[in-house]
Specification:
Helix content: 25-40%
Radius of gyration: 25 Å
Number of strands: 23
CATH class of the largest domain: Alpha Beta
CATH topology of the largest domain: Aldehyde Dehydrogenase, Chain A, domain 1
Number of domains: 2
Number of helices: 16
Mean pLDDT: 95
CATH architecture of the largest domain: 3-Layer(aba) Sandwich
Length: 498
Amino acid sequence: MREVNHFIGGQQVTGKSGRFGDIYNPNTGDIQARVQLATEAEVAAAVENAQAAFPAWSNTNPQRRARVMFEFKRLLEANMDELAELLSSEHGKVVADSRGDVQRGIDVVEFACGIPHLQKGEYTEGAGPGIDVYSMRQPLGVVAGITPFNFPAMIPCWMFAVAIACGNTFILKPSEKDPSVPLRLVELFHEAGAPDGVLNMVNGDKESVDALLTHPDVKALSFVGSSDIAQYVYATGTAHGKRVQAMGGAKNHGIIMPDCNMEQAVKDIVGAAYGSAGERCMALPVAVTVGQKTGDEFVERMMDAARGLTIGTSTDPDAHYGPVVSAAHKAKVESYIQMGVDEGADLVLDGRGHTLQGHEKGYFIGPSLFDNVKPHMQSYKEEIFGPVLQVVRADSLEEAAALPSNHQYGNGVAIFTSNGRAAREFAAQVNVGMVGVNVPIPVPVSYHTFGGWKRSAFGDTNQHGPEGVRFWSKIKTVTQRWPEGDIGDQAFIIPTMG
């Protein structure tokens, strides 16, 4: 059976722990490979290699570091088909979604190609008598990233592309559910010209996570995953003196105003709610309709749109979405559907029990739609992370806007309206980190920054964009004065014209 190795010091390394995790094919339920789970000693070996590579890499001028990024971008584009198909085989998302996953990673690599400009400091001449002040951005050292299963190409690139461009060396700990694409990313980065030890990868579970969080030579760590684990990562990492950014869960809302283009809103939300089987932290699992008539029309149209979705294997070009990632996750999503029924919400479309002929053991869930969901319900308060859309009804924009503002999560929110003033005020006042106006999934482009509020993010700095450069570097400020004095024969005399 195929095994996924670690990558340390410029080469694949066979694990020594004797512990493995199974990698499933979500379309069939079969085990297709296994991944080695690292020990604390193997994590330490990766840190040691990264530490050894840091002096030379950090002293490599930013233009040369950028050239590695340019070549990495070229290799990602050249290997797009391989990466997308491999991603789909382990995650379950359809190939078109997998290509988008890879492309969003490429976008961040492209941003990192601009590091010679992005890392420039500031300069003030004559801050005092004969005194100049300037600043420089310098790398931190050995840094790490812990990434989730749902975007195994994009999120690793969010982290290591910017971190390494800044002059750091990096250790990637991807999800053990779908680690093959992260391993290919690391191999391609090495092929792009990165020296041995600049980018390493260790597979593992909590043991390897804790080893990274407590190792004294790991200076900063980025995490994306569930909120409970994000809080643990942030608390543990900062307690050990590390700079930490930890992105958690989400419960994104879409506000449906009476004056919106309903046809477009339904088209947008059906994709945002059910696309990639809802396994996106920027999915839109809650629709808040304003007014009785708006709610009735939206639910009726959404039922028709959801029924028209095709659920198929990840390789089916006609499928709108594929299976969820694992049997355990399928059971979790279906338990939330039952929870909503038990709490009294109206289940108008039930996706449980969906099967695909010839793939009866696959992890498929049809689209589910709830109406009349109430804010006190546990199924509303928590992240479901599956193809489930909950409709909450409100009487006014103020009531609707209060729902995402008061929710424990604050990742993303969207408003669908034709009223520019209402949209402007909503965007300014809502207590959420990323806002879409007639945009259902407001993920910022790579040269802006990604990050939520409240229990969706722990730490003060967001992912990628200018915030990413700030997170992965530290600023040093120099105040200098050159005293006057007789330096004799060494004096430099400016020649005069004449």
